[in-house]
Design a protein that fits this description.
Elements (H helix, E strand, L loop, with lengths): L2 H27 L4 H31 L4 H23 L7 H112 L9 H17 L6 H42 L11 H15 L3 H10 L4 H36 L2 H26 L11 H20 L4 H19 L11 H28 L12 H13 L9 E6 L6 E6 L11 H13 L5 H29 L2 H18 L8 E8 L3 H9 L13 H8 L3 E8 H45 L16 H29 L3 H29 L2 H6 L5 H11 L1
Antiparallel strand pairs: 1-2, 3-4
């Protein structure tokens, strides 16, 4: 506690003590009753308790307050004032004699006491008020501070916004600066291509003047690359200012550079060719170059190895040029270099090749010339292709790169062979030559070296086409002269005597062997009853019994089958088969006229069978489509024009000329002709004619009788409503004696004429199968005719009549026919 507080407490204690003294004096002076005394005691006790409670409260308040000099001084002053007032009241108190004075004094004491008691509360209230004022001051300070802080934050936000804007502006300026730098770099890079004009021009001029071997120098190719890049860049950006002018200047420089490469290459290749020729002259020991005396080893050593070694630096230059061949300028330059190379090689090699083929032509036949010439040319192409590939490795695969060199060299082979096969009329020579070119050269020699033989293949195909064309012409001429225009002699048509002589010769030579003549086979076609024929030719002697046009046609077709294209051979085969079939038909009529009809029919069947069988191996189409123009519908328009229905001077669509052009144009008519099918039809007709001829020869009376009986029955049925008025037996032609006479004729034919016909068939057709197929319908016809007559006899005649008619029974007829077959 502070000194002021202690003083206040002491003052209160002294005041209470004095009050107790006054009370004691009052009690001694004034008598009071017991009740009054008890009240006074109670009052003293209350005052004492009150004083103690006030002291304890003051002490507590003093301990709880924070130390403050201002607050302590104020409380001390208030307590001192209260104590002074009470002390003065007690000290100045005179003795109380009256009750009113006591009550007055008592009220003053109570007031002073109350003031003393309330002082500490007022002191605490003042303290609290002071604290409240202090807090209000602090709150005001805080509010001012917050206002200042808000203002500071506002200013911070403003500064921050300005800073952010400044930062963004800085970044924008930095990005703009980068764009400007990039634009400047790009502009500088673009301008570098334009700036290259003077640099490249100066360097190119210096490189061209510095050395004759400038294109192969170390600085030329990089310079050329820079020039190409500039040309490509300006060509890709035509929108640039003065791009056209700069492009023209750059292309001019590029053409100069490429021209220098072209000139350098030409000079180097010429130098290599001269070095190779000089090496050949030195090797031969002559003053001049003689192409005829150089052998294969010398040609390979001097014309290829020496040529390659003479210009070693051109290999890298050509590889660089080929790597840029995607550009049109370099493609043209590469083509020019190819032409220069081929030209120099042709000058060097043409005399050697011409001399070599001249030696081949003098010392060999046409076939030997083809073999030796193609072999030599194939080896030459291989060596030239290897040399060309050394200089132009990427262009060697092109079939046209070496055309200027290989075509003239191959033309030497063509010029050497053409006079020979054009003047040749022998089809065997032409066929052999076509076989050599097609199989030995194209399929064997050139197929193994496709890239090296690409230049030679077109010429071989050309020679082969010429040979095939000549062969086709000779085959057509042969068929016209030897088949269509063939005039047979009596010996050619001496049938069946020729077959009889051949059979006698074969019988005398044979020792139990097979028949040497042409053996024919025929099988039925169940679909339409037509015959399917096959011929099995035996020895070469069998050709002697053939009709000459047949043999010539088949021999001609067999020779040219593997030498011509399928379509060409099909057309020739169609023509040849048609001509041969017509020749056989004409010859069969002559044979029938000179001999018997059976001889003519069997002649046609025999040769048509052979022709049909021999053309089976030819896997071609014998059908030919003929096209012709049809003007038949123009007749009506011409009639209308001549009659005046259409005018020539009418200016409309009805003009006569317009109508004639638009409506009367000729039509193309196509007709399909198949010579093989026509041959089938002709063979079928010949077989059917032979079958009917033999059937009539054998049972003609029976067939006539059956026809008459049928006619009578039909007439009787029509006249009497289906009821016959007279029987067949009553007819004059059906009398029993007439039937007996008819049966005798038929029996005689079965025993004489039918065996003769079968014997002729055996003579013409040596194959038993073929004869069986032809004889089968004859047997069927004969048996059917006898069956019909037997049925008629059973129905219309008596047993006595049937006994007088000696018609063979079915068993007898079967045995007879079986014996003949």
């Amino acid at each position: 506690a502070t000194p002021s507080a202690n003083a206040g407490a002491n003052t209160a204690s002294s005041t209470a003590a004095r009050g107790y003294s006054v009370a004691t004096a009052w009690e001694a002076r004034a008598g009071v009753s017991d009740a009054q005394e008890a009240a006074l005691q109670d009052l003293a006790a209350i005052v004492s308790a009150s004083t103690e409670q006030a002291n304890s409260a003051t002490t507590t308040a003093t301990r709880s307050e924070p130390p403050s000099d201002a607050l302590a001084s104020t409380s001390a002053s208030n307590a001192a004032a209260a104590s002074t007032s009470s002390q003065q009241l007690l000290d100045t108190q005179s003795p109380l004699t009256q009750t009113s004075a006591f009550y007055k004094w008592h009220s003053e004491v109570e007031a002073a006491r109350s003031q003393e008691t309330e002082g500490k509360y007022r002191q605490y209230a003042d303290t609290l008020q002071h604290h409240l004022d202090t807090c209000d001051g602090i709150l005001g300070t805080i509010a001012n501070t917050m206002s200042a802080l808000e203002a500071l934050q506002y200013q911070h936000q403003a500064v921050r916004g300005k800073t952010s804007g400044l930062h963004d502006q800085t970044e924008s300026l930095a990005a703009e600066r980068q764009q400007l730098v990039a634009f400047a770099d790009a502009l500088r890079a673009k301008l570098n291509y334009f700036d290259e004009l003077e640099k490249v021009g100066t360097l190119l001029q210096a490189a061209t003047l510095s050395s004759a071997k400038a294109p192969t120098g170390g600085d030329f190719l990089p310079l050329l690359q820079r020039l190409d890049d500039s040309v490509a860049y300006i060509a890709a950006h035509p929108q640039f200012a003065e791009a056209a002018a700069y492009g023209a200047k750059f292309r001019h420089l590029q053409s100069r550079a490429l021209g220098s490469i072209r000139s350098h290459f030409a000079s180097e290749v010429k130098r290599a060719a001269a070095a190779s020729e000089k090496a050949c002259v030195d090797a031969l020991g002559q003053a001049t170059f003689d192409a005829g005396q150089i052998d294969e080893a010398q040609a390979t050593s001097h014309l290829y190895v020496r040529f390659r070694a003479a210009v070693p630096e051109l290999h890298s230059l050509m590889a660089e040029i080929e790597s840029r061949s995607g550009s049109p300028e370099y493609q043209k330059l590469l083509s020019d270099l190819h032409a220069i190379f081929c030209e120099q090689r042709l000058i060097l090699m043409q005399r050697i090749v011409e001399r070599r083929f001249a030696d081949f032509a003098r010392s060999s036949t046409l076939m030997d010339l083809a073999r030796a010439g193609c072999g030599y040319l194939s080896q030459l192409n291989k060596q030239e292709h290897a040399l060309f590939e050394h200089f132009f490795p990427h262009s060697a695969a092109s079939p046209w790169a070496m055309a200027p060199l290989l075509e003239p060299l191959c033309q030497v082979l063509y010029d050497s062979m053409r006079p020979g096969y054009v003047a040749t009329n022998d089809m065997d020579v032409l066929c052999e030559l076509a076989h050599i070119l097609k199989h030995e050269v194209l399929e064997e020699q050139l197929s193994h070296r496709v890239s090296a033989s690409a230049g030679m293949r077109p010429l071989i195909m050309r020679v082969l086409a010429d040979v095939q064309e000549r062969l086709t012409f000779r085959a057509q001429a042969f068929m016209r002269e030897e088949v269509a225009a063939f005039v047979p002699s009596e010996a050619d048509l001496d049938y069946p005597a020729k077959l009889e002589r051949a059979a006698a010769e074969e019988a005398s030579k044979a020792n139990g062997g097979s028949n040497g003549d042409a053996a024919d086979s025929i099988a039925p076609d169940g679909s339409d009853g037509a015959a399917r024929m096959a011929t099995d030719t035996g020895s070469r002697a069998g050709f002697a019994t053939w009709y000459p046009p047949l043999e010539r046609t088949l021999v001609c077709l067999s020779k040219i089958y593997h030498c011509l294209d399928t379509n060409v051979f099909g057309s020739l085969a169609h023509e040849g088969v048609g001509l041969c079939a017509r020749s056989i038909d004409a010859a069969s009529r002559t044979v029938a006229k000179n001999g018997t009809p059976l001889d003519g029919l069997l002649f046609a069947v025999k040769h048509l069978l052979i022709l049909r069988e021999q053309i089976q191996p030819f896997n071609v189409n014998f059908r030919v489509i003929d096209k012709e123009l049809d003007f038949s519908h123009m007749r009506d328009q011409l009639r209308r024009i001549t009659s005046g229905e259409l005018s020539l001077f009418e200016l409309s669509s009805m003009n006569a000329v317009m109508q004639l052009v638009t409506r009367s144009a000729p039509r193309v008519l196509e007709s399909s002709v198949d010579s093989k099918k026509e041959l089938e039809v002709q063979l079928k007709n010949a077989c059917e004619a032979f079958i009917m001829s033999v059937t009539k020869l054998t049972v003609e009376p029976l067939l006539s009788f059956i026809t008459k009986v049928t006619a009578v029955r039909v007439a009787a049925a029509a006249a009497a409503g289906g009821q016959e008025k007279r029987g067949i037996r009553e007819q004059a032609f059906a009398a029993p004696e007439r039937l007996a006479e008819m049966a005798n004729k038929v029996n005689e034919a079965l025993e004489v004429q039918l065996p003769t016909a079968v014997q002729k068939m055996k003579l013409y057709l040596g194959n038993p199968g073929t004869r069986a197929i032809l004889f089968k319908p004859i047997k069927s016809n004969v048996a059917e005719a006898h069956a019909q007559i037997a049925a008629l006899l059973d129905a219309e005649y008596s047993a006595e009549d049937r006994a007088s008619i000696t018609l063979k029974s079915p068993a007898e007829l079967g045995d007879l026919l079986e014996a003949l077959s």
